[in-house]
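I would love for you to help me understand the pair of lines that follows before we discuss the fold together.
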Amino acid sequence: MFVIGPETMSKSRFILMSLFPNIVFGFIPYLIGMLFPRFLFFLVLGTLSIGMGAGDYYNVFNALMQMPNGARTYLYRFNSFWYLPE
């Protein structure tokens, strides 16, 4: 699974949108599984989801390294493009 947004968005919104599935399906279930060991399913789900978010982490890394402040980005098919609005 991956996230896609058809509208242009700011750098911070793009980063949040990219990380949101990893937070909801990865880190939160992982923490629940660590805090309550009887919920082993959540621990496994979180571990697998965190690993499957590698593409999202790559997008966030590229956004942090390449996009200047004030840039906007949009997604088209499997690619993201950024530009500076006038």
Notes: Residues 65 and 71 are 12 Å apart (CA to CA). DSSP finds three helices and three strands in the chain. The first helix runs from residue 11 to 35. The beta strands are 9-10, 72-76, 79-83.
